[in-house]
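Chapter summary example.
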Amino acid sequence: MARELYPEVRWIWMNGRLVEFEKATVHTMTHALHYGSGVFEGIRAYNTPRGPAVFRLPEHVKRLFNSAKIYRMELPISREEVTEAILETIRANEFGACYIRPLVYRGFGPMGVNPLPSPVDISIAAWPWGRYLGEEAIERGVEVCVSSWRRAAPSTFPATAKATGNYLNAQLIKMEALANGYVEGIGLDVQGNVSEGSGENLFLVKDGALLTPSIAASLLSGITRDAVMTLARELGIEVREQQVPRGLLYTCDELFFTGTAAEITPIRSVDRIPVGDGRPGEVTRRVIAAFHAAIHGEDGDRHGWLTPVGVPVAREVS
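The structure predicted for these 318 residues follows.
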C-alpha cells in the first residue's frame, strides 16, 4: 500500500543518509509515536525557467529550528546541513515540482512523558503533490464551515511552533468539516474570534482592504501568509493584521486560505452562506497572479525567494 500511495518516491533522507523508501521506518517504541514529540515543515519546490527551485527555503528551515527550540530539541546538525539535505533528497528522487516534509522527532528511548532522554532524529521526504484542497478550488473556490472545535489557548500549546501534536486539534476540525459535507473547517480561538483553518491561514477582503488574524489568535505564522502580505502591499492593497470576529466571515467581500499545501485557495461559502457573489473576487485573483509569478520565477525572483535545487548528483546511497 505504501508503494501504491507514493510510487514516485525512491529515497528518504534519515539521520544523515539516503534510505530506500521501503526501509525508511522507525521503531514502535519511538517517543514521538506515543507522545507527539515532533516538529516539522511543509515546503514546496516549483519548476521555474531556471530549473526546479524551493520556495522560501531559508525561512522554512529557520522556522523548523525555532519550533525545535521551543520544545528543547537540539538538532544534531546545522541549518546549512538541513538545507543541503533537503536539496539532496529532491535531487536523489529526480523531482522537479514537489512537496517536501522535514520531520524532527524524539526517537527510540526510555518510555515516559519526559522527552529529554530520547534522541532527536531527523527525516526528510519529498513527493509530487497537487492542489491540497482540490484541482478546481482555485477557479471555483471551496465550501467551508466554522468548526465547533476551538484552537488551543496560547497558554496550553504554543501555536508558533509547527509541532506534530498540535495537529490533533487540526484533525478534529478537518474530520468534522468533511463529515458535514464541507472541504475544510475554520477554527476560532478561545475568545471566539477567527484563528485559521485546519492547516491554512486565512485572509478576508473588506472594502478593498486585506485583513488577516494576528498571530495572537493561536495561529501558525505562515510563510505563505507572509509572502501574500508582501505581494498585496506591492499591489497597493492595504493589509491589516487584526482581531477578526466570526461575523466578518459572513459579511466580507472575499475570503481565501493560504498555506504551503493549499497555496492560495479561494473560499466561496462559509456555513452555506455565499462569500460575496460566491466566486473568487478581484483582489483574490490579483494576489493569486502575483503569487504564481513569484513561485514560478516569472518575476525574475526579485524577492530572492527561490533556492535552486541543482543537478542530480550520482552518489552512494543505502
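To summarize the output: The mean pLDDT is 95.
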